[in-house]
Automatic annotation (TrEMBL):
Organism per entry: Setaria italica
GO BP terms in the entry: glutathione metabolic process
Name of the molecule in the record: Glutathione S-transferase
Domain GST N-terminal span(s) in chain numbering: 5-84
Alphabetized InterPro entries for the sequence: Glutathione-S-Trfase_C-like, Glutathione-S-Trfase_C_sf, Glutathione_S-Trfase, Glutathione_S-Trfase_N, GST_C_Tau, Omega/Tau-like, Thioredoxin-like_sf
Keyword Ligase: no
Domain called GST C-terminal: residue spans: 91-223
Superkingdom of the organism of origin: Eukaryota
Annotated family: Belongs to the GST superfamily. Tau family.
The keyword Zinc belongs to this UniProt entry's keyword annotation: no
Gene: LOC101757829
Positions of transmembrane segments: none
A Gene Ontology term for the protein's cellular component: cytoplasm
Keywords assigned: Cytoplasm, Transferase
Known catalytic reactions: RX + glutathione = an S-substituted glutathione + a halide anion + H(+)
Length: 225
Protein backbone atom coordinates (compact mmCIF):
# COMPACT_ATOMS: atom_id res chain seq x y z
CA UNK A 1 0.00 0.00 0.00
CA UNK A 2 1.07 3.65 -0.43
CA UNK A 3 2.12 4.07 3.18
CA UNK A 4 4.45 1.10 3.27
CA UNK A 5 8.20 1.62 3.55
CA UNK A 6 10.83 2.57 6.07
CA UNK A 7 10.63 6.00 7.72
CA UNK A 8 13.74 7.81 8.92
CA UNK A 9 13.76 11.34 10.32
CA UNK A 10 16.93 13.45 10.39
CA UNK A 11 16.62 16.18 12.96
CA UNK A 12 17.81 18.28 15.87
CA UNK A 13 16.06 17.79 19.22
CA UNK A 14 15.69 21.53 19.92
CA UNK A 15 14.28 22.49 16.51
CA UNK A 16 10.58 23.46 16.66
CA UNK A 17 10.31 22.39 13.03
CA UNK A 18 11.64 18.92 13.80
CA UNK A 19 9.39 18.72 16.85
CA UNK A 20 6.30 19.41 14.73
CA UNK A 21 7.17 16.56 12.37
CA UNK A 22 7.68 14.20 15.30
CA UNK A 23 4.32 15.29 16.71
CA UNK A 24 2.66 14.53 13.37
CA UNK A 25 4.30 11.10 13.14
CA UNK A 26 3.17 10.28 16.67
CA UNK A 27 -0.39 11.47 16.09
CA UNK A 28 -0.55 9.20 13.03
CA UNK A 29 0.83 6.31 15.11
CA UNK A 30 3.75 5.74 12.75
CA UNK A 31 7.00 4.01 13.65
CA UNK A 32 10.15 5.76 12.49
CA UNK A 33 13.87 5.87 13.09
CA UNK A 34 15.08 9.18 14.49
CA UNK A 35 18.66 10.31 13.83
CA UNK A 36 20.08 13.35 15.59
CA UNK A 37 22.11 15.54 13.22
CA UNK A 38 25.13 17.61 14.19
CA UNK A 39 24.20 20.76 12.27
CA UNK A 40 27.79 22.05 12.56
CA UNK A 41 29.15 18.84 11.05
CA UNK A 42 26.40 17.63 8.73
CA UNK A 43 26.37 13.97 7.73
CA UNK A 44 26.73 12.91 4.07
CA UNK A 45 23.23 11.39 4.21
CA UNK A 46 21.79 14.69 5.39
CA UNK A 47 23.63 16.77 2.77
CA UNK A 48 22.56 14.49 -0.07
CA UNK A 49 18.99 14.34 1.23
CA UNK A 50 18.52 18.13 1.44
CA UNK A 51 21.17 19.67 -0.83
CA UNK A 52 19.21 22.89 -1.44
CA UNK A 53 18.55 24.29 2.07
CA UNK A 54 20.75 21.93 4.11
CA UNK A 55 18.37 22.28 7.06
CA UNK A 56 16.53 19.90 9.37
CA UNK A 57 14.08 18.24 9.33
CA UNK A 58 14.37 15.72 6.52
CA UNK A 59 12.03 12.73 6.32
CA UNK A 60 13.30 9.78 4.31
CA UNK A 61 10.51 7.45 3.22
CA UNK A 62 11.61 4.25 1.57
CA UNK A 63 14.84 5.95 0.50
CA UNK A 64 13.17 9.11 -0.85
CA UNK A 65 13.82 12.40 1.03
CA UNK A 66 11.18 15.03 1.81
CA UNK A 67 12.26 18.41 3.19
CA UNK A 68 10.66 21.44 4.92
CA UNK A 69 8.51 20.76 7.96
CA UNK A 70 5.11 21.86 6.66
CA UNK A 71 5.69 19.96 3.42
CA UNK A 72 6.63 16.89 5.44
CA UNK A 73 3.49 17.10 7.60
CA UNK A 74 1.35 17.35 4.45
CA UNK A 75 3.19 14.37 2.99
CA UNK A 76 2.67 12.29 6.12
CA UNK A 77 -1.04 13.05 6.14
CA UNK A 78 -1.49 12.25 2.45
CA UNK A 79 0.65 9.12 2.19
CA UNK A 80 -0.42 7.61 5.51
CA UNK A 81 -4.06 8.58 5.28
CA UNK A 82 -5.23 5.25 6.65
CA UNK A 83 -2.96 5.49 9.70
CA UNK A 84 -4.49 7.38 12.60
CA UNK A 85 -6.67 10.50 12.33
CA UNK A 86 -6.38 12.91 9.42
CA UNK A 87 -4.34 15.98 10.37
CA UNK A 88 -5.90 18.31 7.79
CA UNK A 89 -9.67 18.88 7.69
CA UNK A 90 -11.67 17.13 4.99
CA UNK A 91 -13.67 20.26 4.16
CA UNK A 92 -11.79 22.32 1.50
CA UNK A 93 -12.52 25.68 3.16
CA UNK A 94 -11.46 24.44 6.60
CA UNK A 95 -8.34 22.91 5.03
CA UNK A 96 -7.48 26.23 3.37
CA UNK A 97 -8.06 28.02 6.68
CA UNK A 98 -5.72 25.65 8.52
CA UNK A 99 -3.03 26.20 5.87
CA UNK A 100 -3.46 29.97 6.13
CA UNK A 101 -2.95 29.98 9.89
CA UNK A 102 -0.06 27.54 9.65
CA UNK A 103 1.67 29.94 7.25
CA UNK A 104 0.92 32.75 9.72
CA UNK A 105 2.62 30.78 12.51
CA UNK A 106 5.80 30.34 10.51
CA UNK A 107 5.76 33.94 9.31
CA UNK A 108 5.05 35.63 12.66
CA UNK A 109 5.90 33.19 15.46
CA UNK A 110 8.77 31.64 13.50
CA UNK A 111 10.38 34.99 12.72
CA UNK A 112 9.97 36.12 16.34
CA UNK A 113 11.57 32.83 17.49
CA UNK A 114 14.59 33.52 15.27
CA UNK A 115 14.91 37.06 16.64
CA UNK A 116 14.70 35.92 20.26
CA UNK A 117 17.23 33.16 19.62
CA UNK A 118 19.77 34.77 17.30
CA UNK A 119 19.66 38.54 17.98
CA UNK A 120 22.82 39.80 19.67
CA UNK A 121 21.31 42.55 21.81
CA UNK A 122 18.83 41.99 24.63
CA UNK A 123 16.55 44.80 23.43
CA UNK A 124 16.29 43.04 20.06
CA UNK A 125 15.38 39.80 21.82
CA UNK A 126 12.72 41.60 23.86
CA UNK A 127 11.37 43.08 20.62
CA UNK A 128 11.13 39.55 19.26
CA UNK A 129 9.16 38.52 22.35
CA UNK A 130 6.81 41.46 21.78
CA UNK A 131 6.27 40.29 18.21
CA UNK A 132 5.53 36.76 19.41
CA UNK A 133 3.03 38.02 21.98
CA UNK A 134 1.21 40.02 19.30
CA UNK A 135 1.07 36.97 17.04
CA UNK A 136 -0.31 34.78 19.82
CA UNK A 137 -3.05 37.34 20.52
CA UNK A 138 -4.10 36.99 16.89
CA UNK A 139 -3.89 33.21 17.15
CA UNK A 140 -6.17 33.33 20.19
CA UNK A 141 -8.94 34.46 17.86
CA UNK A 142 -7.93 31.87 15.27
CA UNK A 143 -8.18 29.14 17.89
CA UNK A 144 -11.66 30.27 18.88
CA UNK A 145 -12.82 30.16 15.25
CA UNK A 146 -11.07 26.93 14.21
CA UNK A 147 -11.81 24.89 17.33
CA UNK A 148 -15.52 25.79 17.41
CA UNK A 149 -15.45 25.56 21.19
CA UNK A 150 -13.62 22.22 21.28
CA UNK A 151 -10.22 21.34 22.76
CA UNK A 152 -7.91 21.72 19.75
CA UNK A 153 -7.44 23.74 16.60
CA UNK A 154 -8.47 20.54 14.85
CA UNK A 155 -11.64 20.16 16.94
CA UNK A 156 -12.03 17.06 19.09
CA UNK A 157 -8.49 15.85 18.38
CA UNK A 158 -5.18 17.54 17.48
CA UNK A 159 -4.62 18.34 13.82
CA UNK A 160 -2.42 20.28 11.45
CA UNK A 161 -2.44 23.64 13.23
CA UNK A 162 -1.89 21.96 16.59
CA UNK A 163 1.37 20.35 15.48
CA UNK A 164 2.54 23.48 13.61
CA UNK A 165 2.18 25.75 16.64
CA UNK A 166 2.87 22.93 19.11
CA UNK A 167 6.49 22.69 17.97
CA UNK A 168 7.17 26.07 19.59
CA UNK A 169 5.58 25.40 22.99
CA UNK A 170 8.69 24.36 24.89
CA UNK A 171 10.57 27.35 23.54
CA UNK A 172 8.17 29.78 25.19
CA UNK A 173 9.40 28.57 28.59
CA UNK A 174 13.02 28.77 27.43
CA UNK A 175 12.59 32.38 26.31
CA UNK A 176 10.87 33.32 29.55
CA UNK A 177 14.04 32.32 31.41
CA UNK A 178 16.39 33.78 28.77
CA UNK A 179 14.67 37.13 28.26
CA UNK A 180 12.45 37.52 31.31
CA UNK A 181 9.27 37.89 29.24
CA UNK A 182 6.34 35.50 29.53
CA UNK A 183 5.40 34.92 25.90
CA UNK A 184 2.41 32.63 26.42
CA UNK A 185 0.38 34.07 29.27
CA UNK A 186 -3.07 32.90 30.40
CA UNK A 187 -3.92 36.48 31.34
CA UNK A 188 -3.53 37.57 27.71
CA UNK A 189 -4.49 34.44 25.79
CA UNK A 190 -6.49 32.12 28.08
CA UNK A 191 -7.72 29.84 25.30
CA UNK A 192 -4.21 29.25 23.94
CA UNK A 193 -2.76 28.77 27.41
CA UNK A 194 -5.36 26.08 28.18
CA UNK A 195 -4.77 24.49 24.76
CA UNK A 196 -1.01 24.45 25.35
CA UNK A 197 -1.40 22.68 28.68
CA UNK A 198 -3.80 20.15 27.16
CA UNK A 199 -1.67 19.51 24.08
CA UNK A 200 1.57 19.20 26.06
CA UNK A 201 -0.02 16.52 28.25
CA UNK A 202 -1.06 14.39 25.26
CA UNK A 203 0.61 11.12 24.33
CA UNK A 204 1.95 12.51 21.04
CA UNK A 205 3.96 15.17 22.87
CA UNK A 206 5.52 12.88 25.47
CA UNK A 207 9.31 13.06 25.41
CA UNK A 208 9.37 15.45 22.43
CA UNK A 209 8.45 18.91 23.68
CA UNK A 210 11.26 20.80 25.38
CA UNK A 211 10.54 20.30 29.10
CA UNK A 212 13.98 20.80 30.67
CA UNK A 213 14.71 24.51 30.21
CA UNK A 214 18.17 24.30 31.78
CA UNK A 215 19.15 21.49 29.40
CA UNK A 216 18.15 23.65 26.43
CA UNK A 217 20.08 26.62 27.79
CA UNK A 218 23.18 24.45 28.21
CA UNK A 219 22.79 23.25 24.63
CA UNK A 220 22.50 26.85 23.39
CA UNK A 221 25.57 27.90 25.37
CA UNK A 222 27.61 25.17 23.68
CA UNK A 223 26.03 25.82 20.29
CA UNK A 224 26.88 29.51 20.25
CA UNK A 225 30.34 29.07 21.81
Amino acid sequence: MAGDGELKLLGLWTSPFVIRVRLALNLKGLSYEYTEEDVKNKSPLFLTSNPVHKKVPVLIHDGKPVSESQVIVHYIDEVFGAAGPSLLPADPYERATARFWAAYVDDKVGSAWRTMLFANEMDEKVDGATQAIAALKTLEGAFQDCSKGKHYFGGDSPGYMDVVLGGFLGWFNVFEKMIGVKVLDAARTPLLAAWAERFSAGDAAEGILLQDVDKVLEFLKAFFA
